[in-house]
Description:
Two copies of one chain form a homodimer.
Chain A (H helix, E strand, L loop, with lengths): L1 H14 L4 H16 L19 H20 L2 H12 L5 H24 L27 H37 L2 H21 L6 E3 L26 E3 H6 L3 H9 L9 H18 L9 H18 L8 H16 L4 H11 L5 H16 L5 H8 L18 H4 L7 E2 L1 E3 H10 L4 E6 L8 E7 H10 L12 H6 L23 H4 L2 E3 L10 E3 L4 H11 L3 E5 L10 E4 L5 H7 L8
Parallel strand pairs in A: 3-5, 8-9
Antiparallel strand pairs in A: 1-2, 4-7, 5-6, 9-10
Helix pairs in contact in A: 1-2, 1-3, 1-5, 2-3, 3-4, 3-5, 4-5, 4-13, 6-7, 6-12, 6-14, 6-15, 7-10, 9-11, 10-11, 11-12, 12-14, 13-14
Amino acid sequence: MLQIFGSILGVSGGFVLGKEGPMVHTGACIANLLGQGGSRKYHLTWNWLKYFKNDRDRRDLITCGAAAGVAAAFRAPVGGVLFALEEAASWWRSALLWRTFFTTAVVAVVLRALIEFCRKGKCGLFGQGGLIMFDLSSNVPSYGTQDLIAIIILGVIGGVFGGLFNFLLDRILRVYSIINERGAPSKILLTITISIITSACSYGLPWLAACSPCPVGSMEECPTIGRSGNFKSFQCPPGHYNGLASLFFNTNDDAIRNLFSRGTENEFHMSSLFVFFIAIYCLGLVTYGIAVPSGLFIPVILAGATYGRIVGTLLGPMSDIDPGLFALLGAASFLGGTMRMTVSVCVILLELTNELHMLPLVMLVLLISKTIADCFNKGVYDQIVVMKGLPFMEAHAEPYMRHLVASDVVSGPLISFSGVEKVGNIVHALRITGHNGFPVVDEPPVSEAPELVGLVLRSHVLVLLSGRNFMKEKVKTSGSFVLRRFGAFDFAKPGSGKGMKIEDLDFTEEEMEMYVDLHPITNTSPYTVVETMSLAKAAVLFRALGLRHLLVVPKTPGRFPIVGILTRHDLMPEHIHGLFPNLRKSH
Amino acid sequence: MLQIFGSILGVSGGFVLGKEGPMVHTGACIANLLGQGGSRKYHLTWNWLKYFKNDRDRRDLITCGAAAGVAAAFRAPVGGVLFALEEAASWWRSALLWRTFFTTAVVAVVLRALIEFCRKGKCGLFGQGGLIMFDLSSNVPSYGTQDLIAIIILGVIGGVFGGLFNFLLDRILRVYSIINERGAPSKILLTITISIITSACSYGLPWLAACSPCPVGSMEECPTIGRSGNFKSFQCPPGHYNGLASLFFNTNDDAIRNLFSRGTENEFHMSSLFVFFIAIYCLGLVTYGIAVPSGLFIPVILAGATYGRIVGTLLGPMSDIDPGLFALLGAASFLGGTMRMTVSVCVILLELTNELHMLPLVMLVLLISKTIADCFNKGVYDQIVVMKGLPFMEAHAEPYMRHLVASDVVSGPLISFSGVEKVGNIVHALRITGHNGFPVVDEPPVSEAPELVGLVLRSHVLVLLSGRNFMKEKVKTSGSFVLRRFGAFDFAKPGSGKGMKIEDLDFTEEEMEMYVDLHPITNTSPYTVVETMSLAKAAVLFRALGLRHLLVVPKTPGRFPIVGILTRHDLMPEHIHGLFPNLRKSH
Lengths: 587, 587
């Protein structure tokens, strides 16, 4: 069933064109929209979409959407699967692998058909490059020991630059988030400022570059006529071209293609490459985070390729490898240093360039640059997640968690419901707290001794209350009223921002004094831990099962059968360090 | 730290040469040996290996070893990572991705160096094909709608053949396992029989084929001189070659290369291909499972390629695609139909053939053949795991598990230890059961009421008993004696078959009456579930956390604080169906 969905995503992925950041975003957005059952606001709803209104399917769909985005942006279907695996999904299952593969396979087929359709130049720059954007495949490159040393150094420096990029980006994004929070005018002003800086750089800097005479016997036109090409004339006299302008005044795709191209050792002056590198590195930093749909991949590849070409040109006399291949390795080192992805970057670069012979070197460079950069800070996407304050669970529990137990971090007074609870109590509890889950405990006379029944979700309680099946007496029912009163999908997960709110419900004095039976909507098999469970192990449980709530039960008998509820927020370092200020931050 | 290990594995992976089955096995074996701290029997031990004597590191090492095996066998480093991800590891973590990547990167570099070294023909057939074994890269293939239909049909039939292969292989392996269990003579006899059948087929069948005249203007020698080549003369007169002999009398690698080769539409007679297909399909079935190191990948690729070439030759007049590319797609369809892997097969084929342009078609074929074959049975590796009776947990819980609770399947009488237990009781319990974990419960006078302390492992209890730190009185100690008496690694996981046994320990009557404090070696944070927990959820817990034991605790207070222990065997379908014969087997 989800496969059908995957193919819808795949087809939309194939049609959406652009760059990685917005593509991944667009893919994920479409997926989320489908997962909500369409948009009611824009009258785009389908009834059958209701089957996917649950956490797991929605999470899977968003992962598939991200994969479709990368697959379409880089025309790299396998790379898309691996990107989703390595970066997007914190909770991987083999079914998900198959679903993302399905999605990107459809993307690949649709993309291939569109490229075929656009071959006659009907679609602007879209068809350019075919399915392989920067095709490098040619003769088998040969390399020896001295090349390996050069490549190791390239990887090390690339890793340092990547780590620095992440560090600076984190600082800049923190400033931007303060500016962006001030409202739309500040946002627009920031965007305009960055646009002006970008334009000034792009137009101003080429004036610094000297004109070069056109190479003799080149296959390409020189100077270039039209939109793309290696030789932009700019201010130069006829028969000459401006190398820096050739990089700045092309699409990013063409600039990358120029940098990767082989047999063009002397096409770009060293000074042009150097200026372009600094400009692109800085512009890449300041552009991400403003209110435009831009990504990180292409700026990083561009900066890395320029860096690689600089190294390649410098080492030219000593090395057999073409500067174009050095540019590829430079791009790999920057990607490894900023994204910290390995397998997916490998495959994406392979799918972008069709240069399988370089794979061992690309792997080596990625290995080195990731290792080096990991000494300084975290990957760029992890940094952004932390900065946004999302309760993202690390794969490993923090070392200090080993010294704490589950009950140490349970926060706030515990609010629990009786199996048959007074409506007034429920309404009060929902009003004064924002909790999304409440433990349900049967107490005498319903049971002999207090006994944990399970967990109810806020959203389910609200739906139940809206049905107004209240009773005068505190007695357990058969639960059949729920089946009579509600359909199977009334309790399905509502779309974002569309859930019922407690403020929407009004009850009379009389209703508030009545009782409602929570048993039919209670999850009677919630995951529980004993209060003395190591916090590290509880964190692993959260991460491995993708939990939202974890019930903490007492160790010794005879006490109230629930100690508290753990949520992801309770396991965040900020919360724990707030409770235990003397805890050492790292091991 | 594990990275160092990965690189050792990587280097060994690079040096071990052969085919996928034995390669994966070899890689995993070396990894397991390292994870045991070397082999004491052959005096290959290193002291620092003791740091990896635990379940998780050993599991990771075996996964890395498998990845190294595939990477070396197919010269496909990224494919190796994905194979390990998709097939070998049931419990994936991002750290593992990085470790397998590290391992295969080292494999790639070592392999590259070895190929370079062997370029001058010093190493027999090893250097052949370079880093890309079956290089197909050439012009961009073009295909239209009628080709797509042909490819979809190819995928469907390939899926059927793949499913049939799995079905037949399962039956044959069941017969073989009965034969192999009879001892070495039967094993050898079986192997000899299969060898004779294989030889008879290889030598006898080519006599059926007619001789073809050598193609005019071919680049290759015809008939072939030496070991490899497309045109074997066999019984034919000079200037002629035998197509069937060209397939049978080559190495499998060369046969695949011949089948994949382009521009050779008429090289193989339809009848030759047909005979070869049937022979290879059947020989592949009967060879796997006999006592020789053979794999499944290469026979399946070979059969698939032949099948694809047959389809390609049949459709020749209607299709633009070369029969060589059809052979590639046929191989993909068979791999998808038997292995049921998608992403890794895609990448392995890409790395084998360097044919990126066919990627969308390969993905499409894999999609179709896997879907079709999934209708019939499970993937070949899953089947083998089931047949071997290993307690392999499915990623999903079986539907009938939703109707059971944890306490339903807890088996046997519960054996638990007191926190301070009489030595005689422990020895008795260890002798009469084979359990690997025992719950520890504090009882008066050690605690006020019976209270669950945690779980002790059999191996740890044995080590503790061997220390003979016994007491006359039943009192709780500070636990410091364990620190004084044992080193940090005495409790480390022993290598397979090397653990202490209860039969190795002898105690006097007096010692049997003494007490030992189990608290210092008790895991006080075991994962627990309430007895009413849905069995489906308990199974998910097992799988997601990679558990071996799960404690089942009572729901209502006042009872003995432990109901039983769940193990993987308790969750196997056979065990559950044994307990509940009326349970429906499927949903």
